[in-house]
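Q: For a teaching handout, I want to show students what a protein-ligand complex looks like in token form. Below are the inputs, and the small molecule is pyridoxal-5'-phosphate. Please produce the holo structure.
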Amino acid sequence: MRKNVKKDNLRSDTLCIHGGNSECENTGAVNIPIYQAVTFRQSEMGKFKFEYGRTGNPTRQALERLSADLEGAAAGFAFASGLSAITTILLMFKSGDKILLSQDIYGGTFRIFNDVFINFNLKYEIVDICNLDFVREKFAKDKNIKAVIAESPTNPLLNIIDIAELAKIAKSYGALTIIDNTFMSPYLQRPLDLGADISVHSATKYLGGHSDVLGGLVMVKDKSLSEKIAFLQNSTGAVLQPFDCFLLMRGIKTLSVRMDRHLQNAQFLAEFLDSIDAVEEVFYCGLKNNKGYELNKKQAKGAGAIISFKISPQYDINKFFKSLNIIAFAESLGGVESLICHPSTMTHAGIPKNIRELIGITDNLIRLSVGIENKEDLKNDILQALEKSKEK
Ligand SMILES: *Cc1c(COP(=O)(O)O)cnc(C)c1O
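A: Here is the structure, written as tokens, with pyridoxal-5'-phosphate included.
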């Protein structure tokens, strides 16, 4: 966008296209070029716009400014993946600190704590973050708790947490609230507006939107925190490459239209799944009977497009997956194409079975990432696969 245009009052669908510096200052090109360069000539000692590609790159800077605009942040940071973004955030903490994790946190995030940072004595505790009295109690009892990491909706059970209340509690104990906003995207939910300190995304999902680029974004509310992240990003170096930054910006331009269609399709399929006997239970906060329905309406612009459901025991779950034609049996989510997965053996396999069962990630649980295909075709695909997988 031309520099003198004010962005304060622009709505998020406009920001997806005109946020950040969306126009090339040097040429007027309406897209930011891919600056495939790692070093930049300095006009004299100490005078430069960019110095070295890990520290900064014009294409990455454009994406980082765009991501800051999308969530009303002081600054945005682009990383090589969602997990490298989360890892970099965790490097702010020190040995002996403890972080609260919501109980059905993304499996990869759990693994960083349980198998990597445990070696550095960064502690975690899993809590039911929907139960805010319990969370308050935890903070009161342990002054080493320095942050809470949560997702809303959670993954894969799609519980809704009260981000504003959670942030209030954490703040009263001097702790940070870090929200993984991947499932919602900035178009549907802005955690920083609700009081969170950091919003993090696996941009691999809705932001990229086409299942063709890995990336992570961090948006930070305040300046001192953003200085810490900038220091860690440069010091540890898991930055997103210029070409991938370009792909992400290209994806973000259509975020709002994709999300609107994702939402329509997901609502339709959730209602359909809720109405058939083959499905025991549907988890989707766009359904009025879901316990997170009202809360989600209050804090987000839509219910997202991930649906989880439990298939009844008369169906052979593996046959069901194999019989789907349009919907791909694959990990990941948030792309234009519908994907289906089996959390207990795929995305959440890193969580020990006893904990999985305890929190409700049972072996008959299925997670569907609803794409933007025709909704009737998706419904028919599910119906025919159910037909083929019914045991006599
Ligand atoms: C995929 C995902 C991640 C990890 O992101 P990568 O880009 O795969 O590293 C983190 N959180 C959530 C909620 C995710 O879905």
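A: Two things your students might notice: The CA atoms of residues 116 and 151 lie 21 Å apart. DSSP finds 14 helices and twelve strands in the chain.
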